[in-house]
Amino acid sequence: MAAPKPEEISHPPMDQLQGLEYCIDSNPSWVETIVLGFQHYILALGTAVMIPSFLVPLMGGTDDDKVRVVQTLLFVEGINTLLQTLFGTRLPTVIGGSYAFMVPIISIIHDSSLTRIEDPHLRFLNTMRAVQGAMIVASSIQIILGFSQLWAICSRFFSPLGMVPVIALVGFGLFDRGFPVVGHCVEIGIPMLILFVAFSQYLKNFHTRQLPILERFALLISTTVIWAYAHLLTASGAYKHRPDLTQHNCRTDRANLISSAPWIKIPYPLEWGAPTFDAGHAFGMMAAVLVSLIESTGAYKAASRLASATPPPAHVLSRGIGWQGIGILLNGLFGTLTGSTVSVENVGLLGSTRVGSRRVIQISAGFMIFFSMLGKFGALFASIPFPIFAAVYCVLFGLVASVGLSFLQFTNMNSMRNLFITGVALFLGFSVPEYFREYTSKALHGPTHTRAGWFDDFLNTIFFSSPTVALIVAVFLDNTLDYKDSAKDRGMPWWAKFRTFNGDSRNEEFYTLPFNLNRFFPPR
Fold it and tell me: Where is the chain membrane-spanning (predicted)?
């Protein structure tokens, strides 16, 4: 038997991911685009409901307050997504709520000056205003780093090797949002997981009028089927005598969103009152803004690959971070109870549907704004049980993580140096945040526990984030360990042409600003 040829046992590296039906600037038919946009909107609801559902009760808020926060968050998400796709990186990314802000916000909730307020509603309003003030101040970090192009300068220290652990852990680092939540109601979570995988992968060749309908709309179809199944279980009394936690996670009528939602409500800035400002609160929130910046950097690079685009040049990435800072400023002004970051699950859906069209994401932003104003209709979709979303996360977070691992194709993984950096950064990216989570759950405070609360919030927020730990470790090792003689092993010859806008002719197609704005903001 003849020995196999080298091309038969290896695959050449590819700048753009193959196999996508529509890339960033190509669009499906209008009907398909609208349905795909609605699918992205449904997926974005998970985080938009989960975060307020956890934080609002801690603040003393009622179901009415929770609905208003969810509506406001969706409204601002829609605005931020439009701004990012039009003027930011221009990648097809949904800008959603961020879990990175949970640590400083919970710290504000437990501030002694707020906890001593006896009236729950007054405590809720005062806490909301304190969070708003901290977020408004902290947003300046991303605005300055982005629009001054300082983040573009920092990104020059990134290489394909250094980005692998960061992008991978943008997905893998959210493992606790996946199957642990599915386990809260396995009778609907596991069927959802099986159905979604079956439709999106095993039945993807099923076509109706030359459209792979099951693959393209797997999320909508499987969610509808399992949601109806969950409603049937609820109506039949299957959960009548089950524990409260099971009922909360499984029943379709326990969210209390539909009954509490107004028919029409347009969110507006400062509706909770004038923000209050505290230096300690703002400093802790700045750590969350930095974490959001790092996580979004990894997510933007994953989105560029799943949209079949080239990696965003440094100045485009920095421009996107600047607009994301504007988004966090809007979060603070409107009072959304969380900051902004790239929605990782929606990035994964680009790969699952094989549609990386920018227009689809802009349509989804329209749905977010529209349904946030029509309260009852938005609340109907928002009442989908969390385990249904978590089942989809198990697939989509993993898909984003694998995109990060795909950057290894541009590096030399026969190098002990590269194996060391990749392995250590990935392991510490998992291990350090897990230590912080376990310590906090037992001691009810983070490992950093001093008299300076702002300092504790800052460090605890940083080390709660897997991508942030991975970036610190990977970039430090990659730029200090035999870096002079390892440019080729790190993938720098391939990476270099994407550092500047004019380095590759395709950048103009993907990242040029609309309305001929490049005349006023020339690319670098």
Answer: 38-58, 91-110, 130-150, 157-175, 181-199, 211-230, 360-382, 388-407, 419-436, 458-477
